[in-house]
Amino acid sequence: MADIVRKHVVSVEGPTIRERLQAMDDSAVVSAFLGGEERAFSELVTRYQTRLLNFVYRTIGDREKAEDLVQEVFIRVYRHLHRFDRSKKFSTWVYTIASNLAKNELRNRSRNPLVLFQTVQKNFQDEDRPLQFEDATSRPDDMYRKRHLREIVEESVAKLPEHHRNVFVLRELEGKSYEEIAEITQCNLGTVKSRLNRARNSFAEIIAPYVD
Amino acid sequence: MDCREFCDQHLAFVDDTLPGIELVRMQRHVAECESCAKHDAKIRRALLLFRNLPLIEPSVGFSHRLEVRLKECHEEQLAHSQRNLKLGAFAATLASAIMLGYIGTTLYDHASPPRDIVMAPVVASIPEPEPTPITTSAPAIVASVSAGLSLWPAALFAEQAPVRFAHSKLELTNFTR
Fold first, then answer.
1. Is residue A5 scored above 70 in pLDDT?
2. Count of helices and strands (H, E) across chain A
3. What per-residue confidence (pLDDT) applies to A136?
4. Chain B residues with CB inside 8 Å of A56's CB?
5. Which residue, A172, A174, A143, is CA-closest to A53?
6. Chain A residues in contact with B48 (beta carbon < 8 A)
7. With contact defined as beta carbons under 8 Å apart, do A94 and A52 qualify?
8. Nearest-10 Cα torsion for B69, B71, B76, B81
9. Which residues on A lie below 8 Å from B36 (Cβ)?
10. Is A212 helix (H, G, I), strand (E, B) or coil?
11. For A166-181, what is each residue's pLDDT tens digit?
């Protein structure tokens, strides 16, 4: 009897479903979701929302649009997760969707000059927003310098050609391997290495006058 | 190592994916060549700046908006699957009705008494004689021709040849004219 009571107590005090999901790897969380555990999808969102937002934002340069696209990524994942080949990495699949959506957005923008203008205008208006990413305890001149530097870096990245920028962000920001980048961008390994090398050199050339 | 080789391998050098010997050669070249050392420093500094960019976080309303959209998506999927289920049920009902009808018809056929087999009437006719390749009515001539003998000696031999008969006890008997 005491054993039964002890077992019951242990099961009650054990980890909650959310904690168990947090301890799982992506593949197990996907399996849990496909097995009917709806909360598993929230876990996937928690894991990927910030990473995807930064990736898309660095690729297209528009924060609001980046949020919309990340939402679209999650909707597509929700709809088509049952079709996902579970022998492959979930993160690669998610980044492939995000990369394709970002590419489409850039293509649409280049076709529609009005959208391009609106984006530029929005970024220009962003100059007036309060400082939000800097450490609030820093001195005002330090904060200004940091913010200025951040803007220079972002502008320099934005100057890279789209296919170079995509590879550059995946490698330098997301830390993806060459093989993963090749899969996400649907290029061969040689192309990825060549683009990355060119992107690094171009970025260094663009930013050099500002930091020297 | 020359500067060109250094530039070719610089990607792997920065990513630290070079094998040991190559890594040492690259490091030695950086120590010896000022322009390559400058290039290496420039790239590394630029990358450091980019990697240290502050991460942006999703806005406050992001999760709520996503939740609403996911809910809509879920309901849409449910409605879709229910529609499919209804369609499936209808198809299953229709298929079972057809199957029942077929089984009923088959059983009815088995239950009815056996009927006589009625076959179509047969019309008999005399077959036409097959045409022979040789139209002559004298087989002896044909035989002699095939044996390579002329007609008259063959007829003479046939006349002079002994005629053999067998009586009822199957003993050979000669008959001479």
1. no
2. 11, 0
3. 55
4. none
5. A174
6. none
7. yes
8. 140
9. none
10. coil
11. 999 999 988 899 999 9
B101-129 pLDDT per residue, tens: 888 888 877 776 666 777 887 777 887 77
- Chain A nearest CA to B4, separation (Å): 14
CB contact under 8 A, A70 and B58: yes
CA-nearest of A117, A119, A114, A126 to A151 is A126
Sign (positive or negative) of CA dihedral B65, B67, B68, B73: positive
Q: Which of A98, A89, A85 is nearest to A173 (CA)?
A: A98
Token pair belonging to B29? 């070249």
Buried b (16+ CB within 10 A) or exposed e, B4-40: eebeebbbbbbeeebeeeeeebbeebbeebeebeebb
pTM reported for the whole predicted model: 0.65
- How far is it, in rounded angstroms, from Cα A46 to Cα A31? 17
Residue tagged 């005491």 (tokens)? A2
Token digits of residue A176: 């993806």
Integer-rounded Cα Rg, in Å, for chain B is: 56
